[in-house]
Protein 1
Amino acid sequence: MANIPPLTTLLAFEAVARRRSFALAAGELNLTASAISHQIARLEAYLGVKLFDRTGQRVMLSEAGTAYLRRVGGALGAIGAATDDVRQGVRNTLYVHASPSFASLWLMPRLGAFANAHPQVSLFLSASPTHSDFALGQADLDIRYGVPSWSDLVVRPLFDEQIMPLVSPTLLHQHRIEAPADLLRVPLIQSTVSVVQWKDWLSAQGLRNAPEHFPLRFDRAQLTLDAAVQGLGVALESSTIAAPHIREGRLLAPFGPERALTIQGHFLVYPARHAKRAEVEIFAQWLLEQAG
């Protein structure tokens, strides 16, 4: 393909970006540091951008390098996984990508059931907040979180989610949280990627003075929930994703579902052409049954 730079330059770039060191990347690839430097210079000349900022002994990705790694790293990972499958004789492999919190809290506890029901499918699961690039062959299926805006893909909503305040038993009793207004005098934890923010929930309760400052902010639902479990504040999250914590009593919903906001936040997406694979349809049907 005309627009792909030499693979040796991409491997060198990925190794330096991951190890943050020319010397360590050279050792990993069995090359000299000078050869690695040459490959990076060759790639930067090909792209016409600077990929790294070098300050003394420190090697940091530039803004362009960070964006390029996000795409190239996934593509190289897909090539490596496909190569391993061929070498080991693995067939019927299904590559599934999901958002980290969904993968860890909701999907992982159910994967054993899928493996038992469909032993003929070899499932490869990856998780990151960045959506898979289907054009690069990074995944067969992607489980995405957010507002659906993927008109070129098949989009299947998984379930309705109830977004509600969640708090540890200790913090609940410590601050005597009995009404929504009581939340205005306790630490609130912000999930920066959540479809529903605190101002949305508080406004729905008739409270207009939502805080502008949050002592703790996270970009993962799992981190937000972990902080709430530790009593660091009140989280505003999906009771579906938080179900393990709620079931074990680590988190409580002080106002129950009556004051929750209901949304559709998680979606199974894939190109229509992928539906021709039996493994894709098997997993899609299983996932929707589990979500139901």
Protein 2
Amino acid sequence: MKKFAVLFCLACVLISVQGIPALAKEDPLARWKPAFDPSGARFTYLLSCVGHPAIEGVAVGFRIRDRVWELTEGELYVDFRPLSQLGGEKDVINKLKFGAVQGMMSSSVAAANIAPRLGIVNLPFVIDSFDKLDAFRNDSELWGPFRDAARKQNLSVVDFTGYGSYGWATTSPVDTLEDAKRINFRIAQAPVNIDAYKGWGLQFTVMPWPDVPQALQTGVISGLDHTPIVCNISKKFTVARHYTLLDYAQGLYVHIINQRWLDKLPNQLRDTLLKVIAEESAEARKQTRRQQEEQIAAARRDGVTFHTLQPGERQFLTTQARKLDATWGEKIGQDYLDLVRNRLNQ
């Protein structure tokens, strides 16, 4: 019995000693912890995001945190919480409106639930390339109405970053629309996406992101509507070994702030915060282009096969998507939608 007790104690010691570093390695945010003590900050900006900071468009939150801390000499602390630490996006949107959360980097698919005009970035084949996205952001006539879309709800869109170009990750090859019709696609809980997939005549399941891994592994779904960056970083390509490059929309993290909180911030701190957000968001958009190329190359090396549709079939998707104007043109504002399309297609 004594021998057993000694062995048991030794085992406990080994577990405690060896387990501590193992647990530390499991902390997905360990490498992004601040190199300063934020407890002395006069003001705190609580900023939420569902994404993983391995994505450049998410990691920008930490770069904003560190620069704001330095430039305000520790007066303003950006308490950035990625990985859904503050809840799912619908829940955080409600907290944002009431001021319990001061800021949110909302996925573009969820942003349309805040204000329909924000759904313009999800309409297929409107802002469908990195170049068009930059042109949209840098044109005040296009950016202004988007920026102010949620003002009636006391929310301001201050900028956005991205997570790449949308396409299809699937468990079997999709080279044609007939192939696509055999796939059950997971799509986000977003009204624009639902209408688009209905118009394309494709099977789809609306599903929260946390449910996707099990659904993909068990065959409940056989495809994902998402970007190469997200699919590779989140290991979805371990099951879905094919990807069809559609580039029909740009995935964004839309940076939204509670306007009442922003108005109460001292002028100098407010100006510094907005300046840093703009500068770091612009840099993050550049890094997203690079990251998409890197993630596609990495997926190819790992054996993922990439596909494209024939021009005629892509044109069918584009034509069907234009029919969404009947409903979304009214919600977004047909004049604004036409202006965006015409300006970006010049």
Protein 3
Amino acid sequence: MRKRTIFYEIFSFIMVAIGACIAAFSIEDFLAPNKIFDGGIVGVSMLLSHFTGVRLSILTWILNVPFLLIGWKKRGPLFVARAIFAMTVFSVAVAVFETTPNVTDDHLLAVTFGGLILGVGVGIVLRYGGCLDGTEIVASLLAPKIHQTIGRQVLCFNIVLYLIIGLIFGWNQGLYSILTYVLVSVVMERVEEGFDAQRGCLIFTHEDVNLIKDKIYKNLGRTCTEWKTEGYIGGENRALYVVISQYELRQLREIMSEFECFITITDIDEIIGKNVKLTLL
């Protein structure tokens, strides 16, 4: 079992590196030469690089460092290790692709293929536990406090960013960037198997459910519904039901690995109800 875990971790780091290189290729050879901007910290880095002349590969790493320090306490050393690795590979790959000619000068082609390739790259990174953008870390910290999901917070941040881009570079560039962001989001979700899709998790356990509920709430900002259940062989136990996003699924797995439990996970197409907190757009 241990060998299998070590093999999976090595494989995860390899896949994160591949995803980061794919994302860097899209940024440098499709989007940046045509002044089409990604969202999040990468988009801010692209904007600052344009005005300051500082290399994008340097800015993307420097601007993400504070968020990595925050993530160390919130998400743990393994997540931060993957994130540092992903961002470092991404920065190095960006530096490499800075020396290669851009693939196209046509804005529509740059949006279409750049968005598709970037979505694949970011999706691979996320699927294997990496992170290229510190805004997601901050959003996960704020989610329990402001009762807004990670997806909604990132979207609001990017709306402001694209408004600024539109004012500076003209609305054509702003609209191209928004179109790219939408395309990246769709492809990323497909690759990462629903980055912001809702998941319903049913947890059965004999252990202290109050401790489990506290851990889920403190780490994810999600509340659980609890009831008594009885298994045919296991006898009386407790069941917890919690709704999370696909992005939070890995965190839930890490939390529940500390407990003896049985979990089923299902897709959720829609949530209706005024009292439901932290639902996604």
Protein 4
Amino acid sequence: MKIIYKKLVVLTEKVEDLEIKESTKPDKNPFEMAKMQFDIVAEKMGLDENISKYLKRIERSLIVSIPIIMDNGDLEVFEGYRVHHSTVRGPGKGGLRYSEGVFLDEVKALAMWMTWKNSLLNLPLGGAKGGVCVDPSKLSKKELERLTRRFTAEIINVIGPDIDIPAPDINTNPQIMAWIMDVYSMQKGKSVPGVVTGKPIEIGGSVGRETATGRGLYFILQAICEKLDLDLKSLKIVIQGFGNVGGNIAKILYEEGVKVIAVSDISGGLFDEQGLNIKELLEWRDKNGLLKDFYERDYFFVSNKDLLEIKCDVLIPASIENQITESNAYNLDCKVILEGANGPTTPEADEILERREIIVVPDILANAGGVCVSYFEYVQDLQSYFWKLDRINQELRNIMIEAFEEVYKISNEKKVTLRIAAYMIAISRLKKAIELRGIFP
């Protein structure tokens, strides 16, 4: 801790000169990483080679050009993607992200992870994902709307309540989902709220959806603490990411009296051994943006790299993929990693963490609360009957805890990690579905 503390002090002094940068592509190809994770589990399961071939391929990938007229009259052309990994268990389901760094193999990996996630929760859904290569912070609201509407028109034949249901992800929100719904509905000649989830409540959205991923993380954290005989309120938590997922789990923990000692966003993070005032930081984020500019308390500034290595009880990576790798896995100083992001840990890092006896609660279980409540929203839209928040949270807890208990049981019985156990359950269900449906023609 002394070494990290020195780094924090130095970074605090230099925070004025910090230049914010975001890598356009990760060091490790996420789709290759996703396939590697699958191969590890397939080998342990003795999975039939034909099933492996089937599940390692993407059903369909759509790449589209999105030309829009900018406010100054210039034409800009952006690239967008929508990928279906598997629809063998139901319509595709997965988010849509707007990011300068998004690329096809990232979207393929995210779609594959969505397949495993939905199968693990036993939802009647497949896996899909989408993205547009754009920095939305550089667009006006009108430009963002034109981009979203044109992108929707380009992918309209591969989305729909019975085909693929997009949802918010990085840099997308209920307003963007509302524009997608409107374009789709205008083409169909009627209102179709079930085409997307994560919509505003006024047009068919669900209460509890915006905080669902964070709420689900909290339920899983409670469950793993109970299994490990840990007192949650005595733990120290570090969270990488302060957006929808990281911000909401931080808020829930703070309200429950749990000490969050560090959080971060793209600009870096803030650290205090005695605990951060999360309510104050969320208010700052919503009004002023970046954590690097926060000055109202004497917190230490820390880089995202160093934040991962702070001594804590639970580390929650809740930003993007490929954050915990073989280069830093030996330096982590925590008991539990609760994956709030998709694919934050590489297979090589998993091996190191297992040897170090650090428990990793995998993404396809830990952060599945978002897609679970998205499914509830989808069901409510189809039935035109909407639930109260108490029911949403209770149904969410029931499904999350049922999945957790099943994963924990298989992990103990098979003597495997929680990730491998979760994959075994998800893949087994997909295997059965493929066998029952057969291969067309």
